[in-house]
């Protein structure tokens, strides 16, 4: 009996010891996972901002050395010469840049697309490349695609060059048209936004005062005349100064214009007035319009596709009255040695961006 009691007490003690060891082991495991103050540096994690989540935030970036990226603001100033790279996030991206790069099909500019971003590279940039660079996300619905206005990013890039304070232009004498109740811009843009710029009239020589209301200056545009009038006509130039250096811009001819907008106003004239068989004739289709408005002419005439004719199209600026300038566009159709087939209706169609005008004259033989 005593032996059985002693065996039972021994087994109970063994179980209690095992339980105590397990509890001790659990406490030790818990203690090993505990972070002790000062034993480990905690790294803060910031929330990821999605594209377009912050209004006005630009995802247009510049690629620097060793692949580093910097996010661009509304304006950026950099030096010319070194390759200039811009990157825009997205798998469908559109770009815009100074228009002359497209006009001259400049091989220095290239754009490459990938699944995650699009990259614009400009080799050997110069002061002439100063301007607005923009990218945007393209959204497509079936076959129709459009720009996402909420994810369009623009930065005006200044390629600062002390030898070219003004953005160079291929035109050495530009015409600026002044219209009533419509702002006009003298486009003397600079390559350094810190340059001090002034506007000058050539004859009589005088500086035009900028007052931040009627005449203002924007380095990305030039001088803006809010309400131009006849008194602003003449030859002007801009002067830029920075760090003891001063330069003169190209010259600008400011012309005042008062021509109503609309379809072409057309006149049709035949010379000579009286036509006989064997004569040579000129049919002149003339349009008076805005100086910047291109006019396209087309003809319908009796002997069309049956005999050769000559057409000559030209235009010139014409002063009409005091301080008014308009554009005279002409198309002259010439027929030599008139034959019977050439008599009949001559139709001139003149078309501009506002519409089309058709005029008709009937040529009959005066034998």
**Major sheet, described briefly?**
6 strands, mixed
Task: Please provide the ordered H/E string of secondary-structure elements.
Answer: HEEEEEHEEEEEEEEEEEEEEEEEEEE
| Weakly predicted, low-confidence segments | 12-57
Q: Which CATH class of the largest domain applies here?
A: Mainly Beta
The CATH topology of the largest domain comes to Immunoglobulin-like
What do the pLDDT scores average to? 81
CATH superfamily of the largest domain, by name, is Immunoglobulins
Count of separate structural domains? 3
- Tell the overall outline: extended
Q: What is the rounded Rg?
A: 38 Å
Provide a count of the helices. 2
How far the N terminus sits from the C terminus, by CA atoms, comes to: 161 Å
Q: From the 3D coordinates, which CATH architecture of the largest domain would you assign? A: Sandwich
How many strand units? 25
Strand content: 35-45%
GO cellular component, one term: extracellular region
InterPro entries: Ig-like_dom, Ig-like_dom_sf, Ig-like_fold, Ig_sub, Ig_sub2, PDGFRL
Subunit structure: Forms a complex composed of PDGFRL, TNK2 and GRB2.
Signal peptide: 1-21
Give a topology summary.
Blueprint: H1 2-32, E1 60-63, E2 69-71, E3 75-78, E4 84-89, E5 93-96, H2 100-103, E6 109-113, E7 117-122, E8 131-141, E9 144-159, E10 173-178, E11 184-186, E12 196-201, E13 206-208, E14 215-218, E15 222-225, E16 234-242, E17 245-248, E18 251-256, E19 265-271, E20 281-289, E21 296-300, E22 310-319, E23 325-335, E24 344-352, E25 355-363
Parallel strand pairs: 3-9, 10-18
Antiparallel strand pairs: 1-2, 1-4, 4-7, 5-8, 6-7, 8-9, 11-15, 12-13, 12-16, 14-15, 16-17, 16-18, 19-20, 20-23, 21-24, 22-23, 24-25
């Amino acid at each position: 009996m005593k032996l059985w009691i002693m065996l039972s007490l021994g087994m109970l003690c063994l179980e209690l010891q095992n339980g105590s060891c397990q509890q001790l082991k659990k406490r030790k495991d818990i203690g090993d996972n505990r972070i002790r103050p000062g034993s480990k540096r905690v790294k803060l994690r910031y929330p990821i901002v999605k594209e377009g989540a912050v209004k006005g935030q630009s995802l247009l970036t510049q690629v620097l050395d060793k692949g580093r990226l910097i996010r661009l603001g509304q304006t950026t100033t950099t030096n010319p010469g070194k390759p200039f790279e811009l990157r825009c996030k997205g798998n469908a991206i559109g770009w815009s840049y100074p228009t002359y790069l497209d006009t001259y099909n400049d091989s220095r500019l290239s754009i490459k697309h990938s699944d995650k971003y699009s990259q614009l590279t400009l080799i050997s940039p110069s002061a002439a490349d100063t301007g607005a660079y923009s990218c945007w996300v393209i959204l497509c619905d079936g076959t129709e695609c459009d720009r996402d206005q909420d994810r369009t990013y623009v930065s005006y890039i200044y390629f600062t060059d002390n030898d070219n304070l003004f953005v160079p232009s291929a035109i050495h004498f530009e015409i600026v048209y002044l219209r009533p109740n419509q702002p006009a811009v003298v486009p003397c843009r600079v390559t350094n936004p810190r340059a001090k710029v002034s506007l000058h009239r050539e004859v009589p020589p005088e500086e035009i005062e900028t007052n931040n209301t009627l005449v203002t200056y924007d380095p990305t545009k030039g001088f803006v005349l809010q309400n131009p009038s006849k008194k602003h006509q003449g030859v002007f130039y801009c002067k830029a100064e920075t760090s003891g250096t001063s330069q003169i811009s190209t010259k600008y001819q400011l012309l005042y214009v008062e021509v109503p907008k609309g379809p072409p106003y057309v006149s049709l004239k035949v010379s000579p007035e009286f036509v006989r068989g064997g004569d040579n004739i000129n049919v002149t289709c003339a349009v008076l319009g805005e100086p910047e408005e291109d006019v396209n002419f087309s003809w319908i005439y009796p002997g069309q596709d049956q005999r050769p004719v000559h057409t000559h199209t030209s235009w010139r600026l014409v002063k009409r009255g005091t301080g008014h300038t308009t554009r005279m566009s002409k198309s002259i159709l010439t027929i030599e040695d008139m034959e019977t087939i050439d008599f009949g209706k001559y139709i001139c169609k003149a078309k501009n961006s506002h519409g089309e005008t058709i005029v008709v004259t009937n040529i009959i033989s005066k034998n």
